[in-house]
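hey m, so remember when u said the tokens were messed up on ur end? i reran from scratch. heres the input so u can diff it against urs
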Amino acid sequence: MSLICMFAVRNNMFTIMDNEFRIAEILKSKGMTQTDLAEKIGISRVGLSKAINGNTTITTLRKIAAALGVPVPELFVPQPTNTITCPHCGKPIKFEKGE
């Protein structure tokens, strides 16, 4: 699986530019709540909410993935092939063959 993700670094925090996680979907499939996950990884429910909304660290993403039993790339909504996310506006940019 290929994953292209744009990050903005500010004060050692990563902000996910496209802000599209599958965490809620994965939690539902495992019969867990966000509170369950927060307790399992040792952060507050508010801290988890901030992480899910795109204000997170790589360490937190790794903890979330481990607690859910999935690789980190599975936490993200798959992007369409041949696209990247614009770091300025957050919109997908599609590349055509030959560009």
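this time it looks ok to me. The chain has a mean pLDDT of 77. if urs says something different then somethings off w ur setup not the seq
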